[in-house]
Design brief:
Length: 411
């Protein structure tokens, strides 16, 4: 396998489109370059789908290149129309700033801003104080409305209605690239493939204003073999924040992936050598679970650290083999008094998040997917009592693989 990081990214499935493949391959094989990707502050956490971009940044960083983790404190106030069927919810300035700080803190775990290995930036630093007339004269004049409307992100929205504020998004993202080029000599922008039009706009703007050729590269928008968007589950997004999704549940997301996705996910979400990945991908039947466990462990190490990954792995093994350390499994403290009063099984499944509602728990029960201490529950009116308490508490299971532990308190 080649040592050129461009070829490494290509072999692992990170590259969808690139402005000039031969030129960028040669550039990345030479001296250090500065590159960036932007994350709008629309939530207080990134999710597993965001890891595609983060992992690519880590590969480039490991090859000696300098990343800029850009938080979109300015662009979030406008809203990116890409991939949307309607206007994004407008957030307050205070919430956008708070979300931005949390995203930078998350990115720090991967890119290490605090150790001087990457640059943390926020486009609010230059976008919020722009003079509108000056911006239109100096930047807006370089944009063709016809060309902008031909971009896929805008074409999809025209039928439903595209607001004027959203129409400005491409100009602002392009201006980000120009600003980062001027401040840091940034010559490569990365993004999801749905951003291709916006990314190219930045490349073109720098060429027109500075007379310089810079580059862009996009990643494929990953879906699972079942057609679901990467980083989404029936229960919602797989957040990178441990307070939103525990390391145990994060581990479970990866270990429960579709058999058909194992090789693809190992290539993108771990740093394992490709030869080892191909060996793991050849495993079949029950042995394939070994590959999934390695995927889950490696992905959890990258996001939550080795200690949390080991704890999640041990808790998962304990749940399936009985006995062992279950402390990393998601748990809820439950007063003994609630058990003595008779606690409905459907009620507690919804309460701890194994299902989104009691009606969903009822449907799962009718499908044979509700278990208490590995005993299937068939009665809709079933209740938990003190007799269900074991040394480990009460183990709830939804389907084959989703567990939650009730820790009973004497209060």
């Amino acid at each position: 396998m080649t040592d050129n990081v461009f070829d490494i990214l290509q072999e692992r499935g990170f590259i969808a489109q690139v402005t000039d493949e031969d030129a960028l391959r040669q550039i990345l094989a030479g001296e250090q370059i500065t590159f960036y990707i932007g994350y709008d502050s629309t939530a207080g956490s990134l999710h597993a789908g965001s890891l595609v971009t983060i992992m690519a940044m880590m590969h480039l960083q490991r090859a000696g290149h300098r990343p800029i983790g850009l938080v979109g404190g300015g662009t979030t106030m406008v809203g990116d129309p890409s991939g949307r069927t309607e206007l994004r919810q407008m957030l307050s300035k205070e919430k956008i700033e708070a979300f931005g700080r949390k995203i930078h803190a998350q990115l720090n775990r991967y890119l290490h801003f605090d150790q001087g290995q990457a640059i943390a930036e926020n486009n609010a630093n230059w976008l919020l104080d722009l003079n509108h007339i000056t911006f239109l004269r100096e930047i807006g004049r370089h944009f063709s409305v016809n060309r902008m409307l031909a971009a896929e992100a805008y074409k999809q929205r025209l039928e439903r209605g595209l607001s004027f504020i959203e129409f400005n998004y491409q100009l602002l993202q392009a201006y980000d690239y120009l600003e980062l080029y001027r401040r840091y000599g940034c010559t490569l922008q990365l993004g999801g493939d749905d951003q291709w039009g916006n990314v190219l706009a930045g490349v073109d703007l720098i060429r027109r204003v500075e007379g310089v050729t810079v580059h862009a590269m996009t990643y494929p928008l990953l879906t699972t073999a079942s057609g679901e968007k990467m980083g989404k589950t029936a229960a919602g997004a797989v957040w990178l924040d441990a307070d939103k999704v525990s390391p145990y549940d994060y581990y479970q997301y990866w270990v429960n992936c579709d058999d058909r996705d194992v090789e693809k996910l190992l290539k993108i979400f771990t740093f394992l050598p490709l030869a080892e990945i191909k060996r793991l991908a050849r495993l079949e039947g029950a042995e394939l679970r070994q590959a999934k466990q390695i995927l889950a462990y490696e992905a959890t190490v990258i996001t939550h650290g080795q200690a949390e990954a080991q704890a999640a792995q041990e808790a998962a093994r304990a749940a399936f083999s009985k006995g062992g350390d279950l402390s990393a499994m998601p748990a809820t403290n439950l007063p003994l008094a609630r058990l003595k009063a008779g606690l409905g099984v459907l009620e507690i499944f919804a309460e701890v998040g194994l299902t989104q509602s009691r009606s969903e728990a009822r449907r799962l029960l009718k499908q044979g997917g509700v278990y208490v201490n590995d005993n299937r529950v068939d009665e809709v009116e079933a209740v938990l009592s003190p007799a269900d308490v074991t040394e480990e508490g009460i183990l709830l299971r939804a389907g084959k693989k989703r567990y939650h532990r009730l820790v009973v308190e004497e209060k």
